[in-house]
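Archive entry: two folds, one per protein. Generate the first.
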Amino acid sequence: MSQPIVFGAAYSVYVRTVRLTLAEKNVPHRLVEVDVFSEGGPPPDYLLRHPFGRIPAFEHDGFQIYETDAIVRYIDETFDGPSLIPDTPRGRARMTQAMRILDCYAYPSMVWGVYVEQVDAPQEGGETNSVRLDEAIRRSRTCLGALERLMDGGPFLFGYTPCLADLHAAPMFAYFRLAPMGRQLLDEQPRLKSWLKHMLARPSIAAIDDAGS
């Protein structure tokens, strides 16, 4: 069985999610850097892997796939190691619910709305858009509250073992906490704050960082 290949940028939230999933399953992989923000857009040959020009894309033993949810579920079902999908219908439903919250609401507001406005924009010589930031803060607070209410008491989002929702969330929260308002909003949700500290200490985080992310 050949080594999986992840195509995308090391800094990408969704590339990191795929790589964290591989690390949690103890699967070595290769990262092929793809800059979708380069002048002229993604390289033409990359569009053969992902016709919408997003990242990541994935290849394993000649099988090519894109879309993060599909990739991580393939990884979990294909490789040995602890399952990253809950074993009950309700557990799987909660995991999927959390992942949709993260994709549809948290990522745009927490990463693009708070982190980018408060951290990236100033670092790149731009100015924070206060109107956009205020709206992102409001939506981020709603996202954090919704996710904290779904937690069931364990150190992970849904119990005592990590699932795909934890790996989906961790890269988003890692960026979010770098913004002053991100840290302030996390202080309002102590269980999520504790969860993030627990996640950032996992060996899988160190594994992808050591691999050049």
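Generate the second and append.
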Amino acid sequence: MSDYAISQVYPSDKRSLAQIDALLQKEGITRDGNLDYICAMRDDDDEIIATGSCFGCTLRCFAVSSEHQGEGLLNEIISHLMEVQQARGNLHLFLYTKVKSAKFFGDLGFHEIARVDGTLVFMENRKSGFPNYLKNLEKTKKQGVSAALVMNANPFTLGHQYLVETAAAQCDTLHLFVLSEDASLVPFAVRKKLVQAGVAHIPNVVLHDSGPYIISSATFPSYFLKDEAAVIDGHARLDLAVFTKIAQALNVTHRFVGEEPTSQVTGLYNKIMAEELPKAGIQCHIIPRKEAGSKAISASTVRVALQNGDWETLKTLVPRTTFDYFTSPEAAPVLARIRKAGNVVHY
């Protein structure tokens, strides 16, 4: 153990954050926009010599000053962050690291889930975490042609319903994964409930929580990738590396995705998926979006209608089950959150 103290750095501490940014920059890292705890280790002159951060149940944004590398400071930062997470009740932890650092974190008790060669490795602190997730999925495996669909459904629209109906009609079993990260305006519990209600009439759908293994773009770590195109590429390839293992557990040979004509991000993501999935023996089907009034139905448009209290427009965009929820007293806290949000159109 070194003699250096580790302390929390608050968003108001601009001087410390500037030092942290400079330290991260030397490692080719930009401070992540999604952080809920930042710590720093200081030397006797009150200069920051090491840092690390948390977001949710993930550890991220590590750096040690070049003058102090080899002193075991990063181990101390990791130990500190794990104590912080334990105090929060987060015992199952995840991290993303550059490929060259994977062995270091492996020696600290982290286990690889998936990797994108040359870019990043996704790890967790439970050896049996991902294997157990796959084993539980295997219990839902069925005979015949199996397909998969992943959606956030923020919230569930007629477009989502059409996508599920179209996919389900082309297979014996459709494994439908709902992103369970709470990074959306509509909380996961509500999103899942609305998906469940909206697909109840389709008998061959098996609903799954994504768990922590299918990563949303909102929480994907972009801090060590150089530009937006690299971030999208890295996220897509990591998603596919994880998904390929999920597909093997379920004998999935088809993946369905919705076309996203207004989103450059999703367009590039879908393009990578269409190129890469067949290499793993999985056919990728990009389904054109359902339209209302000659415009593609999107969850962003639905959130705008909810924000404005435009119930007439909402009726044309969502299934009855979604409409009934949002016009019920139960939806009041979610509506308040959407109305406070400012910009609800996400690309």
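Annotation attached to the second fold: The CA atoms of residues 197 and 254 lie 24 Å apart. The mean pLDDT is 92.
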